Amino acid sequence: MKTKTIIYTRVSTGNQEASSELQKEKCLAYCNMMGYEVVEILTDSNVSGGVELFKRPEGSKIYSMIENGQADNIVTLKLDRLFRNALNGLESIKFFDLHGITFSVIDMGGSILDTKAPVGKLMMTMMLALGELEKEVTRDRVKKSLNYRKENLKVYSGSTPYGFKRSGDSLLVKESEMNVVKQMYKLKDKKSYRFIAESYDLNVSKVHRILNDEFYEKFI
Question: Quick check: 15 pLDDT over 60?
Fold first, then answer.
């Protein structure tokens, strides 16, 4: 009996038809080589990898098909087509295991990774964990860089923060606006953000950012 296989592809924007077709082409070639029976080709278009697999329009069909016994195997081109979040990846793998589902990633840094073998399952788990570690390290690096620029009054975003003016790569205090910031902080625990915003002709979201940004505390 042939292995009933779902091919899954994903593109993050709606204008990546070529990428989607390339994913399908490579997955189909792999399935033909392995003798798999392709029962469904699912493509999530304009869907971020940050969305959990089973919460995507087409990804949710994988869950239903597995529950109904319509598939034995999933094939995708790259691991990030299925998961970008380690927790979601591990939870999905657990669900696959409970239902006896295997899956293959046919381009894992130039190699094929298949969970049919225990070592493949171990490698998949390790790759997800390493991917999550890399994201955490990157987030930490960005946060430290942002804090450094704020502490040294350097431009840290595309827009100049309220209360400052830009001079090259530096931020200089704009006294008229900083005086408003000081008054806003005096009202912070007494009035609503909407009241403060209307009082100083600012939008509520800007007031919220200012009053919840530690950057301003040393100026008030």
Answer: no
